[in-house]
Amino acid sequence: MANKADYKITESAAELEEHLRDMLFIRHFEEKCNRVYREGKAGGYMHVYIGMEALAVGWMKAIRKGYDYVITAYRDHAHALLLGTPPVAVLGEVMGRSCGTAGGKGGSMHIYDPKNGFYGGWGIVGGHVPLGAGLAFAARYRGEDRVCLNFMGDGASNQGVVFETLNMASLWDIPCVFIIENNEFAMGTRLEYHASDKELWKRGLPFDIRSERIDGMDVIQMKRQATEIVEWCRKEQRPAWIEVMTYRYSGHGAADNDRQLYRTKEEEDLAWTRDPIARLKKQMMELGYLTEEKYDAMDEELIEEVEKIYIEADASPHPEPDEVYDNIYSDMKPEMGH
Amino acid sequence: MGIETTYRDALNQSIEEEMLKNPEVFIMGEDIGRYQGTFKVTRGFVEKFGSRQDQYNYRILDTPITECGFTGIGIGAAMAGLRPIVEFMTMSFSILALDQIINHAAKVHYMTNGEVKCPIVFRGPGGAAKQLSAQHSHSMDGWYAHVPGLKVVAPATTLDAYGMMKSAIADDNPVIFYENPGLYTLKGVIPEDQNFTVPIGKSQILKEGKDISLIGYSRMTQVNLAAAELLAKDGIDAEVVDVRTLLPLDTETIYNSVRKTHRAVVTYEDWRSGGFGAEIAARIQEDCFNDLDAPIGRVGGLNVPMPYARNLELLCIPSEEDVVKAVHKIG
Ligand SMILES: Cc1ncc(C[n+]2csc(CCOP(=O)(O)OP(=O)(O)O)c2C)c(N)n1
Ligand SMILES: [Mg+2]
Q: Fewer CB atoms near the end CB (10 Å): N or C, chain A?
């Protein structure tokens, strides 16, 4: 696990700038979501990705977008945005508007975009993990070389169905990469209070699955390792179980307004020294690829872009009342009223 | 003409034909391959679609005993467009997969506003077999029929088992296919035409009558037919309405019958309290109140965990005598 940039950067300036832009965009997008929520324009449960950006950016650069399958839990905005879902449709969904990915029926936790390979967006902790294996199973069944990136939280990795799925994924040679976004917390429960062995990466070993732990705060390393793992999985037609170390700076969800209940300010401050965005910024500046001015300009530009996205999403109406019966089934509406 | 067969073999043939026609249809479940299924619905499949020597075979997929997990994998495969048939050894074991069926399969189409389809069949025996006692005798039909996003079918005849399985496999939505173990040996005739289907969502009148409507599904339809014969001896001409599909419910066929006979007894094997028959009775009451000459009768399973002793078990499962009694009770 490389914590320092003790490796040689071979990526071009343009490539690194794209990584930076992607991460910064997600951060601003998520901050906007938080504001929108506080203003009462979004409701329910909403979970943002602030602090974890390098993880999703790295993995999404490793796959064939729109071909490979991606599935995750409710902390799902970043995955969709990186796969190419229009940001207005993501924010619109968060705000319950008809321009949203599900026309306002899903909400923040249920963003989907199957055309771009994104299969959600699920709210039952751990429940989507077998679904991801099923998507990869379908690829294997058909003899395609798609893989599935199957993201879950550290908390989710305790669910029984995850172990069931690992067993079958190995037994049936399913090309699925299980990715544990270990942000050290399951809501307000710290890793050491929910996992008997904090080294979650070991959980793939009993199933004869390639198992590793990698750093998720260094986007360059993240992307490189993800690329190697994805191509291995594609070629070997075998699953992998990868624990990625990260941290969420925000609360668990928008409804979590007292982080002091489960962690200290000092701990957060320390974690901020690992900020993936600041880290890449520093790396790029050292290489002469970036200046403060250029960074600030990009920052400003993205803030404005997110503002425009918000204005467009906010102009979209809420769904019509008679849509409530639509798409429960593919071929019929249930009788009204029953 | 047609082919004489049993309910079990009609299912076997129906599934086999669809699997031969469409390589995207496959079946998965515990002991469905080499062991040929606990109730032998998948007899002969291993040889037809692979070999006994295969470590695993994606078309006849023997799963570990992990209902929640393999059901989820099936649902994921369906989301990718495959057409899995998931066999539960008994519907009682599908309880371990309720999260996958209800929270995932039944919701994905709605939560994606129609972007993702989930063409999957969940099938298996539900209700009492013989002395399997409390943990192996759940009906589960009413539980599933409660859930928007699922379709629930419960054929009562061999012909319908054959034809409705074809429709279930062709359906783009998750379908619960309820097979009462008491029906597996039921004889019947199926057509030679492999394209024959029986639509989901249509009830049927299996015996016409003018005095009372006996409304049921699955094995209880057979019980109602037997009860109708007993009632005929008392001079009561009963009509037997075979509901066939619980969700979506074909209320029209039910209401038309009630409007003709002005009396109804609803029958179901599931626990009487809160079972699906209660829903049917409530709808008749809401929409046909003025057509009724008597209160709606209800015959259901006793509200107890299924006991083992045969005499107690028989008390719990509604019989034709129970139906006759209920008819006399409403007057
Ligand atoms: C089956 C289930 N139990 C409980 C919850 C409530 N819940 C939502 S998120 C969460 C914590 C999950 O933590 P983790 O898997 O680490 O993901 P993270 O939120 O950190 O991304 C809990 C307990 C739920 N949604 N589903
Ligand atoms: Mg976590």
A: N
Q: Look at residue A217 and tell me if it is in a domain.
A: yes
Residue A157 Cβ < 6 Å to ligand 1: no
- Chain A residues lying within 8 Å of B252, measured CB to CB: none
* B162's tokens: 């054959």
Structure confidence by residue, pLDDT tens digits, B254-278: 999 999 999 999 999 999 999 999 9
Q: Using an 8 Å Cβ cutoff, are B43 and B50 in contact?
A: no
The best mutation among A187, A189, A198, A246 to test binding of ligand 1, ranked by most ligand atoms within 8 Å of the C-beta, falls on A187
Q: Ligand 1 mean position to A86 CA, how many Å? A: 26
Peptide bond into B155 cis (omega under 30): no
Domain boundaries, chain B: 3-190, 204-330
CB B242 within 8 A of CB B217: yes
DSSP symbol at B95: G
What does pTM read for this prediction?
0.96
B30 is annotated as an active-site residue:
no
pLDDT in tens, B297-320: 999 999 999 999 999 999 999 999
Counted residue by residue, chain A has a size of 338
pLDDT digits (tens, 9 = 90+) for A42-97: 999 999 999 999 999 999 999 999 999 999 999 999 999 999 999 999 999 999 99
CA A128 / ligand 1 centre spacing (Å): 12
If one residue of A45, A122, A125 were mutated to test the ligand 1 pocket, choosing by the most ligand atoms within 8 A of its CB, it would be A125
Given the residues B16, B18, B30, B67, select the one marked as catalytic.
Answer: B67
| A287 Cβ below 6 A of ligand 1 | no
Q: How far apart are CA B5 and CA B3, in angstroms?
A: 6
CATH architecture for segment(s) B204-330: 3-Layer(aba) Sandwich (3.40)
Say if strands B151-153 and B245-247 run parallel, antiparallel, or are unpaired.
antiparallel
Domain count, chain A: 1
Average confidence (pLDDT) over B109-114: 98
Q: What are the chain A neighbours of B147 within 8 Å (beta carbons)?
A: none
Q: Are B50 and B22 in contact (CB under 8 A)?
A: no
> Which among B73, B176, B246 is the top mutation candidate for probing chain A, defined by the most A β-carbons within 10 Å of its own β-carbon?
B73
Is residue A8 in some structural domain? no
Phi and psi angles of residue A115, each rounded to the nearest 5 degrees, phi first: -60, -30
Measured by CA distance, the residue closest to atom 12 of ligand 1 is A186
Per the structure block, which two tokens stand in for B159? 């012909």
